[in-house]
């Protein structure tokens, strides 16, 4: 067996609770224990607030001022890290143990060159080669070497640049280079790719994997993304409410998660298989951590809770396939790490039981609607997803798009922003954020607009709503061209066109009551007033599952998912026909995302709403959308029904994008098509097809002209020269 | 970079033109007849007429304005009514003393404020922090016309270490500079503290810590430069004000700078000198602020691109 590198035992960390007097400490990590072996990747998986980042910061002893490690032991290769003096600990940080963070945009010092920032780490932890004396040259050489190792082109020049001159993916590479400077035995990566686009995420994960093979370092990967875990981790530990609740090898876990929480988490992932039913939801929210627990922490939200669960704190039990092995151990300190390959779970269901008794229906979590265990406490939405309705919906879904009437049609939509320079603000060019987009929205249907950040998808949404005035093209709606309407005339259509934003925390005025926020549109557009308006607001809040008592409360009293429901109620208030959903679930945890997606789907069925769903998340598209349009640098490169595009992507960009998405299910994984470099600036797009410099299948003619749309079916077109002429390769 | 420089200089020039015009109009804003205000009510009509002609006040306003601008172009600001010396020469004589005092006071303030602010931020919530902030509160609250005499009383009259006033003895710069620098140090220390505290919350500080840097390297190398950016603006504004003549401090200590010149010439109703003073103070103010703005470009690499 490989040797243990990092040993964490009974690690307990508390944060002094802000605002509360009298020692109300929040126990963010409670007796956390795990091992990491040399060269392996352990993923710490959990939703926001479960304590995974705090665990990482505890290992590095980098807790915020209010944080304190109250118990436990952390041993790195035999060194007791918690016993080290601060001075000695500094030698470990960035040396034997490196760390990279979630947000590369803010994690580098803006006023120092990236070379200087890496050089600091080299100087602290590197060893000068013999015979080079005191010359500082070796530091510079090492910096360039590190930048080259993380795949930064032209490293000598890049070393002299400042962080703002680098793209997000590049910055994360610089962060990795910095962490590598000390030749770490362990790299802690705290959500290293969460802020990056999927194709860039694929690059960075690939890089980490390669470096790990070269250097033999171990990686502690902290993430909320099951797909990333499935593709990169050797083993994983699931955290819930400050505790690890399940540990297993990746293979064992994805073959059959043992803890009810893990199972629900898997079931709440959207995917194409689940599109005709509601997603599983976990009712309620994570319990507050400032009080002691008597029983299991998940009991209030668990669909398998037993009477005992409330009183007896579960110990560790093996979640073995067979009834063999040590059963019935009530010893809470039983260390799952002692059994290296063991699948261990902290749940009373597994006491004296094996997989056949705990999950009799299937070892794998349900992936289709027939096995959908809609818990009694789950929201009204999932309960309402009844079989006849699903059948009818499936039938509707399968009709070709052309059979649905068009509600809104955008043709050659352009939104160009002038670039102004100099004393007299002369216009020296245009950022062509949206450059000739055609799309149709149909009643009761969802069009997903997919693309990476900066491709112009949000601007399309704003252009349609006239929040950003188009500089060209037309938007036909109800006999009018919205792009040519004056503000007054546009007001008549405002009621029909609504929007839901990405960040439910920032999109509500914190000083307005929820009732006023939801009711504002009714008053502004003169739809309802006074008592009638209040009744309508109460109805709406009921409809989105919040309840009318929310009217007298302020937004900060609600969780992220609840706030997004309120935002949906606000959009619904004026009885719109079209809602632009701009990444409405990207800021939310998976289980909460499931609730919002269920709600949106339900509302569409009940009210016949048309959605323009702007997203970068392919699994959400697969679950929710009827049609998909893929955008790259201001233009739609491919459009078709969801099945057409996702099952048989034709444009090389679509293929690369889909292949970059980390998948939980091995069977769904595609051969990775690695895209090099970053998306070019929309102010200076490459000549011809904008994608050709990064395209793995580019032909010599691609730089000549932007390819015209080739219609492959009534619903489908691709803008790629490879589809213009019949090409045996493409068909294959 | 050069575009930014040009546009900044362009807007500075516009401001200066406006200032010149206002200063020109200053003499016409005096209630009643400016000549009468200068000479007093008892002056003879012939003397008034002579002064009016000497100052060119008998000409039409547009003509006066043209003459005034033409004079400015030759650095001719007119002549002092007291001794007929050119105003430019009078100003040139007083400016160095003011620059000397202002720069000394500013350096003193920075030397005190930066370590104090950083220390307070680092020892946040401790006695050190409370002490530094108490000094800051007292420093801001103490008016110069009170602190100045107090310092004279202590160091000049009782201890006899330093001269009471003037600028001709060694050590005579100390008391005015301390008086002027104290309030500035107090404001700056507060600002440095707040700014450092804010920067210490940034993600890149966490990155630097994760690299294994010591707390002092973190503070001086990573936090301070970012923290001083907003402080720089304040320093610029304050230096402008100091160079504009610390009227009260210069008067208290009899320091022969622009501030005391302004007070003297207002008392003597020497209008051309008052005009010259106001003009010079404005020019200095605008110049310093423009320079501060441009200094930002050097301190923060994000500015100045594009």
Automatic annotation (TrEMBL), chain A:
Entry's localization field: Cell inner membrane
Alphabetized SMART domains for the sequence = AAA
Keyword Nucleotide-binding part of the UniProt annotation: yes
Per its UniProt entry, which superkingdom is the organism in?
Bacteria
Q: Where is the ABC transporter domain?
A: 6-266, 419-658
Q: Which residues cross the membrane?
A: none
GO aspect biological process, one term: peptide transport
Positions of the UniProt region annotated as Disordered: 364-403
Q: Does the keyword Transmembrane apply?
A: no
List the Gene Ontology MF annotations in alphabetical order: ATP binding; ATP hydrolysis activity
Q: What is its EC number?
A: 7.4.2.9
Annotated keywords: ATP-binding, Cell membrane, Membrane, Nucleotide-binding, Transport
Q: PROSITE patterns given for it?
A: ABC_TRANSPORTER_1, ABC_TRANSPORTER_2
* Principal place of residence: membrane
- Name the PANTHER family for this protein: DIPEPTIDE TRANSPORT ATP-BINDING PROTEIN DPPD, OLIGOPEPTIDE TRANSPORT ATP-BINDING PROTEIN APPD
* Descriptive protein name: ABC-type dipeptide transporter
UniProtKB/TrEMBL annotation, chain B:
Question: What is the designated name of this protein?
Answer: ABC transporter permease
Per UniProt, subcellular location reads as:
Cell membrane
Q: How does it sit in the membrane?
A: Multi-pass membrane protein
PANTHER family the record matches: DIPEPTIDE TRANSPORT SYSTEM PERMEASE PROTEIN DPPB-RELATED (PTHR43163)
Q: Which residues form the ABC transmembrane type-1 domain?
A: 95-292
The record's section on InterPro entries has: BPD_transp_1_N, MetI-like, MetI-like_sf, Opp2B
What the record says about family reads: Belongs to the binding-protein-dependent transport system permease family. OppBC subfamily.
Q: Per UniProt, which keywords does this protein have? A: Cell membrane, Ion transport, Membrane, Nickel, Nickel transport, Transmembrane, Transmembrane helix, Transport
Q: Which residues cross the membrane?
A: 12-30, 101-121, 133-161, 173-192, 227-253, 273-292
